[in-house]
Amino acid sequence: MMINKKHRASSWWSLLVAVSLFIVLSTYVCEVQAAAVMSVDLGSEWMKVGVVSPGVPMEIALNRESKRKTPATLAFRDGVRTFGEDALTVGIRDPSSAYGYLIDLLGKTIDNPIVDLYRKRFPYYDIIGDPERNTVIFKKNDKEQFLVEELVAQILMKAKEFAQESTHQPITEAVLTVPGYFGQAEREALLTAAQLANIKVLQLINDYTAVALNYGVFHPSGINETAQYYIFYNMGASSTSAAVISYQLVKDKHTKESHPVVEVLGVGYDRTLGGLEIQLRLRDYLADEFNAMRKTSTDVKTSPRALAKLFKEAGRVKNVLSANMDHFAQIENVLEDQDFKLQISREKLEEICADLWPRIIKPLERALAHSGLSLNIISQVIIFGGGTRVPKVQDTIKQFIKEDLGKSLNADEAAAIGAVYKAADLATGFKVKKFVVKDAAVLPIHVAFERETGNGAEIKHVKRVLFGLMNSYPQKKVITFNKHTSDFQFHVCYGDLTHLSSEERLFVGATNISLVELENIKDILEKMSNESVEAKGIKAYFALDDSGIFRCTGVEYVYDKQKIEEDEGTLAKLGNTISKLFSKDSKEEDKKAEDVKEEVGEDEKIKEEKSEEKVNMENEDKHNKTTAEKNLDEKENNKKNETVKIVTIKEPLQHKVTFQFTPPLTGKSYELSLEKLNAINKAETMRSRLESSFNALESHIIDIQQKLEEEEYASCLTSEEKQKILSECSAISDWLYDDSDKTTHDMYETKLNDLKMLTNVFMARHWEHEERPEAVKALDNMIDGAQQFLENAKNLTKDANPERDVFTQIEVDTLSRIIDETVTWKNGETDAQNKLQRHEKVRLTVKDITDHMASLDREVKYMVNKIKIWKPKPKPTTKSDKKTNKKNEEVETEETGSGFGNETQSDDHLSNQQSPDEDIKVNTTEQSTTTPRTEL
């Protein structure tokens, strides 16, 4: 019985170990699979990086200066690349070498008005057009030229570096924020920049959508089955936007679970209104005031360096005036060693920017108009972005909405946190609360094609809207072409842009998105002419994905074909079911196509043309249908077992898609850009290693020279050793500064290793002398503790205490011997070491002391563990106890007997049961004696 219990306990223990091991391994596997991801809120002026890693909540990654945001600027000077604050410093000395405010130049051709505005704002850049793509190139000299994608890619590389340093993990995936007004060209250009930076973009998310997601995630209590409406107003450095957002709990049709949904209903924006424009107005005002003082004969606006200084000071003053009524602008050596100081009031700043304030309300008005909602049902207007800190901006919005503004969001980090939440949702290894996001198309998209009307009439130009203004996405659409019998093409373009100002329409640039050319249509139709088919038309499939990227995903020729089958057996029934499923899919796609057409809002004329088109198609196929029906009737009369089934067949069509917006960086140009960035990164890595090795060698030389001047170090080496080390330090120092241009990091590292081998001798002696007293003190404490333990252990032997014989006499003697040997060794070595000078070879080392401590500790621990597991032996049962037990049993038998039979029989019965009774009593005794002692 006891053996079985032990066996079961052992089995349970093995099971627990196995389960624990499985849990550990599972946790390890999950951690390996769940890699960290990041988000990058890449603005015109600042960059914020959000990160999330396994077991760590969402947070903002810090840069090298331990700041939460970094200037989105990089600079190249004297072959050295710098980022952030360092790049801004370079930009003051050499403005044309520092590149910032790049985001709005992505995907722009050289003739776009945005590029002209950039030249006007920053006149010290030499901007030229790419001979292949006609995009923007910053030209510093003939050797240094950078595409905008290359510059943005390098900023994204730095963001990735910050994220990896924060999470201590490699990161390859990210969600990037973009302005909502970005079109196809801008989004494709940003994806190319991310690809150059070796970042896999999980999604591009509009900045206001990321902020709305952030707000919904951290304020879930207000979301219910009734839609709640908010406006998120953002004024950044270079643009301003307003988005009408709804929050609502919606039940999923398939899972029947309710999930919160955030949906964009209306958007308004002004891509040239922001904090940058206010700063530029203030810069120009300071320049005019400096010129008015006539301190120099040179116009300050003609000096790039002076203009950069004024721009920086204007930004500082603008920020100070957001919290103060007046402030002094102060710049040393603006131009020709002339200083500048001027008092500026907030009132003066508002006067300078008087024409900007009315534009603040326009995005709000457009967003409300596009959403179809009135201001009185908006729960709150929530502001974010650095530009909203300007008091005049807040006052203007308050006057319009006649309510207080919502300021519950972090104006700088809200978009980055919302985007990193989306990144965790899209990445593998993270489980987040489902939050459905529906964005809206700011630029409508339609399809344009030509159609022959027949009878020699003119060719009709037809347009079909795919994604109208504020249509939600991600979404897929289908368009059916019913009357084309030969190869044709159609254009995908931006739709009706009359809701935009004339200036904004110019900023959008080219309205063509892509050209789709269909081939081999005539061959397919001829192939099908001899078969009994019913044409369903040519279907083109389109998608607007989560990133707002438009694609033509495929083109197919769809038709219904009659199929004759014999014997309605099991296989035939299965085929019939499958054909019904195909037919159902076809009907659903036809319904989607009809939905698209109805959604377009076509006029009556187009509807008539569509009906005429269907009639013509019916007339063309009438003869074929009649023939097929006759043949079918004949076959049915001849074979009663044959059945006719309709199968929908989709035949892929060859087609060619050509981008017609600003072409993305691809092919050989992309490879050249990638090689350029790799070369820059490699050179920076080599330079960083060279600087590190140089600094390490220089620091070690200075450190050794200083230590040799201190007595506690100098006493640890002889005069000859000291002179030799000083001479070597002096020689390396001369070599270090004389030949620094010809050296490599390997040479620095070799010199450092050689010098360390020379200096480590006296450094080791010094360390021994400093650490020895503490080590000896620890040894003394251990000896005292061991001796106290030994005195107690002597009382736990068989001779001293028979009832508690924990230790044997050999174990006690062994411990006593080790203690005596350790004391003798310590006293002798200490006396010998005290007779030596500090520069002589150390005799009593810290390692020797720790070795003896380990030996003594090992013996003491052995005896301590033995006393922990020791248990008293059970007392043996004596003969008198057995007789007493036997008598008790006899009495009990007589009392409980049946009374039948004679006394002899009772005795015989008792003697037969004697042995097992004794066994049971022994077991019972063991349990009764062991249990209370264990509890005690």
Structure description:
This protein has 936 residues and is of the alpha+beta class. The chain has four domains: 37-274 and 360-438, Nucleotidyltransferase, domain 5, CATH 3.30.420.40; 276-355, Alpha-Beta Complex (Actin, Chain A, domain 4), CATH 3.90.640; 443-563, Substrate Binding Domain Of DNAk, Chain A, domain 1 (Sandwich); 681-868, Substrate Binding Domain Of Dnak, Chain:A, Domain 2. 50% of the residues lie in helices and 21% in strands. The strands form seven sheets. Strands 1, 2, 3, 4, 11 and 12 form a six-stranded mixed sheet that branches. Strands 18-13-14-15-19-22 form a six-stranded mixed sheet. A hairpin with a 6-residue loop joins strand 8 and strand 9. Helix 20 packs across helix 22 (846-869). It starts with a helix and ends with a helix. Mean pLDDT is 83; it is low at 1-33, 581-628 and 890-936.
Would you summarize the structure shown here?
The protein has 936 residues and is α+β, with helices and mostly antiparallel strands.
Task: Produce the secondary structure layout.
Blueprint: H1 2-33, E1 37-42, E2 46-53, E3 56-60, E4 70-71, E5 74-77, E6 80-83, H2 84-93, E7 98-99, H3 113-121, E8 127-129, E9 136-139, E10 145-147, H4 148-167, E11 173-178, H5 184-196, E12 200-206, H6 207-218, E13 228-235, E14 240-251, E15 258-270, H7 275-292, H8 304-321, E16 326-335, E17 338-345, H9 346-352, H10 362-371, E18 380-384, H11 391-401, H12 414-426, E19 436-440, E20 445-451, E21 460-467, E22 472-473, E23 475-481, E24 489-494, H13 502-508, E25 512-519, H14 521-528, E26 533-544, E27 550-565, H15 570-600, H16 604-638, E28 643-652, E29 654-659, H17 667-707, H18 711-714, H19 719-738, H20 745-794, H21 809-834, H22 846-869, H23 879-896, H24 903-912, H25 914-935
Parallel strand pairs: 1-11, 11-12, 13-18, 15-19
Antiparallel strand pairs: 1-2, 2-3, 2-4, 5-6, 5-7, 8-9, 9-10, 13-14, 14-15, 16-17, 19-22, 20-21, 20-24, 23-26, 24-25, 25-29, 26-27, 27-28
Helix pairs in contact: 4-5, 6-12, 7-8, 17-19, 17-20, 19-20, 20-21, 20-22, 21-22
